[in-house]
Known about the structure:
By secondary structure, the chain is mainly alpha-helical. The chain has two domains: 1-95, no CATH class; 99-258, no CATH class. It is 69% helix and 0% strand. The chain has helices at 3-28, 58-62, 77-96, 100-122, 127-140, 149-174, 181-194, 199-219, 223-226, 232-257. Helix 7 (181-194) crosses helix 10 and helix 8 crosses helix 10. The longest helix is centred in the N-terminal third of the chain and has 26 residues, at 3-28. The chain starts with a helix and ends with a helix. Bound molecules: zinc ion.
Amino acid sequence: MSMDFVLSLFSVLFGLCLGSFANVCIYRIPQNKSIVHPGSSCPHCGAGIPFYDNIPVISYLVLRGRCRRCGASISLRYPLVEMLMGLLSLALFIKFGFHLQYLLFMLFSGTLLILGFIDFDHKILPDVLTLPGILAGWLVSFFPGGISWVDSLIGLAAGGGSLYLVAAVYERITGREGLGGGDIKLLAMIGAWLGWMSLPLIVLMSSLSGAVIGSAFILSGGRGARTQIPFGPFLSMGALAYLFFGREISLWYFDLFT
Ligand SMILES: [Zn+2]
């Protein structure tokens, strides 16, 4: 077996374990519960989950998606989040290799994933994630090999500022709040990590995908029309798409017009 293969495999396993932790964050942070203590328990019967029933993806398959004690079904979301993190970890490893940037962008992608799911569930983007995320993005820009701290700082200000403007104008015109403060802080965080250059494409991709999914939701009947559709998951997906395919998408986009 080649070294690259072994390291890639490790990156997947590392991602799966972080995905397990991401599940804890998605579940507990909106409830203001500690993410380290106590250990995992079944939300239905409260029984503690021993380590051998808490192995990412595998345990879900072994237990056939049910709690060992009470038989309550475990949401498919848990193994899904674990697999997504495993996949993200592998993709970042392929992109950055065995390098500090890999770990740093693991932190960024993991936070985006957690924020996306929390916003999807509760329509909130907790400050405990976005505010440290903004600061971390700016500090990381001082490490060599990424964007400059100036590009990061402009990204932070432009990301927050542009959405703040959109939100203020929308509210002035419609008298309703369309974008929350959380969206503003999330785009500031994205700008701090990926630089101001990333923002036009990310905002374009998130708005388009948000509009398409939103219209589908409304057309499919009832609920969507009045339910506010959270923007956070689309911003998170846009940022991840840019992180991995930004260059390709930009080139393709400019090709359309030249
Ligand atoms: Zn149970």
